[in-house]
């Protein structure tokens, strides 16, 4: 049985400055096994059979950890490690990521994800949106021309044209993610918690379940940027067109305090 060291110990092997001591040892193994060993986990993953290395490379670890972000298992830890590797200059191997993602789609429990190939009436008729047009009304409070309208497939109300998304500027792509995240966190959490906390929770949910894959990967790659609420001028977005007044969220001061103190601390505590 082939085994490859993965997880925190593999990361620590390449980067002694990881900043945490692993609590156990994880191996990806080529065959399913019931082998038990204290402090060691053997995790079936046949994708590693194509490699000869006994320790997963940083590129392999990044692809593996990005693929994990579509399931809610140690999500925050995986996101921290993804950001750590990106900061080290490691690039995502999309082909390898796809292999891992396809394996996990078949092997792990199914996650219900948003399907965009339907009409607005079909998509928004649910417990969150009793009014089919409510979502669009909130978008118009944030922007006269909502960012999502720039990436819709011709003739469609919900389905996305990914070529249009790829052709947007970096700032426009950020707007797509930010606006959708603000609206969806408003719909789900307004009046239940501070909205900056709702924004953070919803970003995780959107990556896992709601964003189409290309947009989710963009959000993962720019996760820290998307949490830098002061730099992103969320104050302007929330105060424009009376958005805060219309949805009843608390003042912007609490957001700015949160943003300036916690942006990277969020990741460190994950």
Please tell me about this protein's structure.
- The protein folds into 2 domains: about 5-105, no CATH class; about 120-270, no CATH class.
- About 55% of the residues lie in helices and about 5% in strands.
- The protein is built from 14 helices and 3 strands.
- It has helices spanning about 5-15, 60-70, 75-85, 95-105, 120-125, 135-140, 160-165, 170-190, 195-210, 215-220, 225, 235-240, 245, 250-270; strands at about 5, 25-30, 40-45.
- The chain has a 3-stranded mixed sheet with strand order 1-2-3.
- α2 (about 60-70) packs antiparallel against α3 (about 75-85), α6 (about 135-140) packs across α8 and α9 (about 195-210) packs across α10.
Summarize the structure.
This protein has a 3-stranded mixed β-sheet with strand order 1-2-3. Helix content is about 55%, strand content about 5%. It has 14 helices and 3 strands.
């Amino acid at each position: 049985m082939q085994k490859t060291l993965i997880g925190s110990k593999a990361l620590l092997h390449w980067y002694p400055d990881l900043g945490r001591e692993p609590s156990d040892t994880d191996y990806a193994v080529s065959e399913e096994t019931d082998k038990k060993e204290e402090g060691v986990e053997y995790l079936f993953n046949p994708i590693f059979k194509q490699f000869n290395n006994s320790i997963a490379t940083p590129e392999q670890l990044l692809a593996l950890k990005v693929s994990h972000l579509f399931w809610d298992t140690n999500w925050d830890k995986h996101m921290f490690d993804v950001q750590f590797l990106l900061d080290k200059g490691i690039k995502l191997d999309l082909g390898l990521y796809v292999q891992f993602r396809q394996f996990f789609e078949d092997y792990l429990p199914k996650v219900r994800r948003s399907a965009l190939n339907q009409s607005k009436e079909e998509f928004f008729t649910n417990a969150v949106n009793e009014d089919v047009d409510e979502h669009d009304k909130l978008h118009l409070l944030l922007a006269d021309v909502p960012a999502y309208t720039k990436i819709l497939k011709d003739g469609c109300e919900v389905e996305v044209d990914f070529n249009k998304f790829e052709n947007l500027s970096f700032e426009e792509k950020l707007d797509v993610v930010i606006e959708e995240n603000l609206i969806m966190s408003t719909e789900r959490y307004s009046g239940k918690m501070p909205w900056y906390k709702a924004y953070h929770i919803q970003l995780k949910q959107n990556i896992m379940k709601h964003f189409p894959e290309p947009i989710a990967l963009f959000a993962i790659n720019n996760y820290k940027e998307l949490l830098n609420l002061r730099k992103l001028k969320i104050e302007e977005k929330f105060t424009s067109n009376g958005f805060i007044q219309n949805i009843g969220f608390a003042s912007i001061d609490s957001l700015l305090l949160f943003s300036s103190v916690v942006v990277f601390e969020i990741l460190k505590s994950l």
